[in-house]
Amino acid sequence: MGLFDQAGGLLGMLTGQGDQSNDSLAKQANVSSGDFGKIMTLGLPMIMKAINRNSQDKSGVDSLNQALNDHDKADQFDSIDQAVEQVDHEDGDKILNHVFKDQNEKEGIIDKIAQALNMDTASVKRTLVVLAPMVLMYLAHRRKSNNVSAEDMGQEADRASREVEGQARQEGGSLLERVLDAVTVDENQTEDDSLLGKVIDNVTVDEGGQDKQAKPSEEEDGGLLGGLFDKLTK
């Protein structure tokens, strides 16, 4: 059984089948387990969607496969905690620089997550930096486990992105729903349009169009988001 199979896949790894794995990730990011879970809930779908966006042509697929070759390390570890200990923050920051369209998009996403969760941008960035290498390790593991050819990795990235989004949507969570709705890819989108340009612009606005307080409540967001808050803050 693979490292990520033990943890129930990518989301299982990040939420933890026990608090230890999440605690290790949070410690690497120098945030509380609760804050890590909140940032992860918004940041993970964005990273996955951006990877998927970048894998729509041969050049992008080739770049993704090279990155996965460099992060094909899941078999080296007996536990998630061991893998987390090897996370390289500099590597994580470089991954984010490649995944997101440009520095403006990267910083804009970090700022918007921070605003939505009423957190500081430094904590959000540290968390995304920790998440990024783990995401590539997971995709490399998935490529190997599913015997995916290099040519088909673009389709596999799309499936992985949809699975993360689907699992999140299945549990609900109004905040997460609005974020995911904001990053849906429009087939008519021009090259100059940022996939994540609208992210969280509407997160703090309710269905009636009234501004809401940026910091979400567990009762308000329910579902996956509320469940993660409950689990990760225990």
From TrEMBL:
InterPro entries: DUF937
Pfam family, one: DUF937
Biased composition (Basic and acidic residues): 156-168
Region (Disordered): 146-173, 195-234
Name listed for the protein in its UniProt record: DUF937 domain-containing protein
The organism of origin for this protein: Aerococcus sanguinicola
